[in-house]
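Question (not urgent): is this output format expected?
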Amino acid sequence: MIKLIKANIHDILFDNRFEEILVGSVWALSARVIATGIGMIVSIIVARAYGAEVLGILAVIESFLLIVTIFTVLGTNTSILRLIPEHLARYSPTSAFKVYRKTQYLVAGVSVAVGFIIFLCAGFIAETIFSKPHLEFYFSLAAILILFKSLMNLNTSAVRGVRLIRSFAFMHLLPSLSQFLILVPLTLFLFNRANPIYAMFASIVITAIVGVLIMNRVFTKKTKPDDTRYPVPIKEILRISFPMLMTATMGFIIAQTGVIMLGIFRSEAEVGYYAIAVKLATLTSFVLMAVGSMAAPKFAELFHSGKVDELFYVAKKSAKLIFWTSTPILLGLIVLGKPILQIAFGNEFEVAYLSLIFLGMGQFVRSISGTSGLFMVMTGNQKIYRNIVTTAAIVNIFLNFILIPEYGINGAALSALFSLIAWNIAALCYIKMKFGKTTGYFPMLM
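Got this back:
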């Protein structure tokens, strides 16, 4: 077994054909590891100093902002990854900047309109949807933050689009780092029950502003008065973005429905327990996201160049990297999950251990599936992938409705497990049927 692990690590590290993705993944992965570690420290501070109830409120507001900004960003955070490099390569930096700026204005306008509506409806959302009228003030603040959260999401992707790998890594690190740096002094010197929520809101504003400054600085240096310009109408941007929007929406539903529906049916404390289980179980997701963010442009380049064999070579290597970096973390959580919950967060969080096991099993299925979703999107199969994710999301909602009232956080975790299995297995089967090959990697079966 040790020889197998060493052989696979050597195979990944010393492969010139995989070097570009590996180097970029190291930067992105390092940032995500640090950000995740800081995020866990923040969760421990909140759990220990403020309690499970405040942790639950924080999780509900975070999930609410996530789902709203999926619609306000309109899928442009994915389409911009294609549009910016395309215009840089075919036209000019000025043309790329015009596309980015038009997309930014579109997202900002939609965010302001949606934020205004939600601000007016904050009382209805808190009292009628969540049955928690005491959260109205927080939903009102969240409505104001929708603009900043949307710009943060767009600019993080845009920075990746101009190939600023280090800035991209920094953008991923900044939200959790700024939240930690704000929360600690507030907790020590100005203790208030709402400090964690205020710190989260402040971190979103800071990251959004930094992202805008980075993009403006980059294009100011690159653009020239005589650059070729190719105008792209908003209609065309939306045509490219909408399939991404549907996929992102359904992916969010699978990831966050448990938190939202626990917030509707159960107490804030139970939401807090489940939120910690999710945070621990998805520690490996930063591996998948880091590798995927680097591999996606390469997939598109190789596919449209007709290099199918090279495409699957890179996809397999990406899956292998994901498997060997994420599996040890998942095994460690299964073996040490209970003492981690007790020691780090408090004895009351022990009830989340079984949920952690279920969620960890779901993440293992994701790890052996590799970057199957991104592979489908970058090879022109985004509509099929959208249908797969939509079906999995419907299954997830149905199971949550049935299982949460009876089984609480364990019901939410089981729902997530079943939908993740359906989602990833279906994607792998489709790729196998269409290309005759698979992007998954599981050495025990291979």
